[in-house]
Amino acid sequence: MKKLTAGIVLASLGFAPMVAADTVRMASEGAYAPYNFINDAGELDGFERELGDELCKRAQLDCEWVTNEWDSIIPNLVSGNYDTIMAGMSITDERDEVIDFTQNYTRPDPSAYVGVSTDIDLDNGVIAAQSATIESAYVATTGATLVEFTTSEETLAAVRNGEADAVLADKGFLAPFVSESDDLIFVGDDVILSKGVGMGVRESDTELKEKFDAAIQSMKDDGSLNALIVKWEIGAEF
Fold first, then answer.
1. Are residues 204 and 181 in the same domain?
2. CB count, 10 Å around CB of 141?
3. For residue 137, with 0-12 CB atoms within 10 Å meaning exposed, 13-18 middle and 19 or more buried, which class applies?
4. CATH number for the domain including 35?
5. Does residue 6 lie in a domain region?
6. Residues 113, 187: contact at Cβ < 8 Å?
7. By C-alpha distance, which of 201, 196, 192, 200 is closest to 229?
8. Does residue 144 lie in a domain region?
9. Structure confidence by residue, pLDDT tens digits, 12-63
């Protein structure tokens, strides 16, 4: 197997280089801090990068990272372009019908609304959400008008420029933007929509899932997962 390296393969999947058959390819979005993001050196960074590297080490697997846009991240897993997804992906029944998940490595994170004013009609207003997320699916079931964007950053920009009244996203993702902003505020009540975040794998890859499940459990047992959760300010500890 190829050695686990500190670098990341930032490759377009359409032109991805061939990798050894025994290399586990780990996909992330690279646009969802603090879970995953591209740092100033152009490398994948964040909670899931650090966690994924440790999980590969404990599972005695040689891993290589790739990035993929969110909208096609599940289809490209199913079609075999990579072997896992670690991209802040919430475990839901709908997704579990298409792919399989390891046990969660974060507790369920509430989704929250953010706007620039408390005078917002969340039930009937215009709500922005990243496409193909649990938040966009939820907004579609309400009386609000859903506007979808490719990235989470675009949803916040839509609120700031008046294209949307509020954005619905993971509270852990939104919190740093609210705390560092002079205009963004939390509005309305939080909503629980998921079972936590887990690693996505193909339904046929039961052995790979079992290896990562065991590695995640070992990190829960020895407290190292909680240490990463605290370090990256992800949410509640186990």
1. no
2. 8
3. middle
4. 3.40.190.10
5. no
6. yes
7. 196
8. yes
9. 344 343 344 579 999 999 999 999 999 999 999 999 999 999 999 999 999 9
